[in-house]
Design brief:
The protein has 383 residues and is an alpha/beta fold. The chain folds into 2 domains: 204 residues, 3-Layer(aba) Sandwich (Rossmann fold), CATH 3.40.50.12780; 83 residues, no CATH class. Helix content is 36%, strand content 19%. The protein contains 12 helices and 17 strands. The chain has a 7-stranded mixed beta sheet with strand order 7-6-5-3-4-8-9, with helices on both faces. A 5-stranded mixed beta sheet has the order 2-1-11-10-12. The protein is globular, with a radius of gyration of 22 Å. The relative contact order is 0.11.
């Protein structure tokens, strides 16, 4: 007797012209509470999970905290640092107030930071750690508009005596008090949100000059997230490792826009150097996903030995296959692809190992399996 297969939701939450990210978060909290993991972050080698209700509560506390600092609809809150749960909380909190966020890459320095904060007319910056806080302090004379810098990694900052610095959890605590004194106020702000409101601001590449600030609406990002999910479906049982910068539009589409529509678990590595190991642990425990990241994963400098042998599940995902193969080999000597015998194209064993030949994966959105075509050996011109 064949055991019953548990069905999982693969269709995104319904959206309309009034849908915003905070409204989707509230719906996920209503449906699942803390029965499902919304976000997990690795700390000291151990995954620290919290559910949708806990995430929603922290977002509301921080939103009240931002309101107590004077953030109004239409304003811009900057986030500077690596991918962390606090980035997501800051973004959703600002959007709950009708404001938006602009992400700044953690490698940005000097003029790059001044340009974004000045053009965005930013008053509040959420910074990750001591390194990012020190950048703002050093540039403060050139940033007279900055009124508050909120940090969430306290290591090295305990003895700082700077009047405009505040710890993330302290702002949350202030927000809880402020929210208690203004019951129902935040729900009114969230209800007033529309899909065409600006959700995030992403910087352009700046190849022909200074980066421009591109405004992206909730509706824009949600539609892109739905379109990507049509090409490469991500079920709510998936656990997505967020390792591309949240300041980039691609990660916003997948981690936030797609994540809030599908309700899958968003995972954050302990640090950039351990992202590959975190990915392997996520895969070994179940359906780990990290789509839309071919270029970065293809060039990943770290190895993932546990992913040397892969079995593709139905339906086949060319994107997932390419990522896993690239991470397992580091692309140093190339890939030697061997497809195991199978009567079904969608159920194959793919073994990857270093070899002298390189392999060029070609895929189309409608394909059911990855197609591999050899490229000429190194030192010769590629066609």
């Amino acid at each position: 007797m064949t055991p019953a297969v548990k069905k999982t939701r693969t269709e995104p939450l319904p959206v309309d012209e009034t849908t915003t990210f905070p409204k989707l978060l509230a719906e996920l909290d209503r449906r699942y509470g803390d029965s499902r993991i919304a976000v997990q972050e690795k700390r000291y080698g151990i995954w620290q999970p919290f559910g949708w209700h806990q995430l929603h509560t922290r977002v509301r506390d921080f939103a009240h905290g931002l309101a107590s600092l004077g953030i109004h609809p239409g304003e811009v809150v900057a986030v500077l640092g690596d991918n962390r749960p606090e980035w997501l909380i800051s973004e959703l909190a600002a959007q709950s107030l009708g404001a938006c966020t602009v992400g700044i890459y953690p490698t940005s320095v000097g003029e790059e930071i001044v340009h974004v904060l000045t053009d965005g007319q930013v008053r509040v910056v959420v910074a990750e750690d001591q390194e990012q806080v020190d950048k703002i302090i050093e540039l403060k004379d050139r940033l007279p508009g900055i009124e508050h810098v909120i940090y969430y990694d306290v290591r090295g900052l305990e003895m700082y005596d700077v009047p405009y610095l505040a710890e993330f959890t302290a702002v949350e605590a202030t927000g809880r008090e402020w929210g208690g004194a203004h019951p129902g106020w935040l729900d009114e702000q969230i209800a007033a949100g529309r899909g065409d409101d600006v959700a995030v601001i992403c910087t352009t590449s700046g190849t022909t000059g200074r980066p421009k600030l591109a405004m992206l609406s909730h509706a824009n990002l949600l539609e892109m997230g739905r379109s990507i999910n049509v090409v490469d479906p991500i079920g709510m049982e998936a656990r997505y490792l967020s390792f591309l910068p949240l300041a980039w539009i691609g990660e916003q589409m997948i981690a936030v826009a797609c994540g809030l529509q599908m309700g899958f678990t968003l995972s954050f590595a302990e640090e950039a150097a351990t992202q590959s190991a975190s990915w392997c642990l996520i895969r070994s425990a179940g359906p780990g996903r990290s789509p839309f990241s071919l270029v970065s994963a293809w060039r990943s400098p770290t190895a993932c030995p546990q992913a040397n042998v892969l079995r593709l599940s139905q339906p086949a995902s060319p994107t997932r296959t390419m990522i896993e193969l690239s991470m397992s080999s580091q692309m140093r000597g190339g890939l030697n692809i061997r497809l195991g015998p199978s009567s079904r194209r969608s159920d194959r064993c793919v073994a990857a190992s270093s070899a002298k030949l390189r392999v060029k994966p070609i895929w189309r959105p409608q394909a059911t399996a990855i197609i591999c075509s050899p490229i000429q050996a190194r030192g010769r011109k590629e066609r």
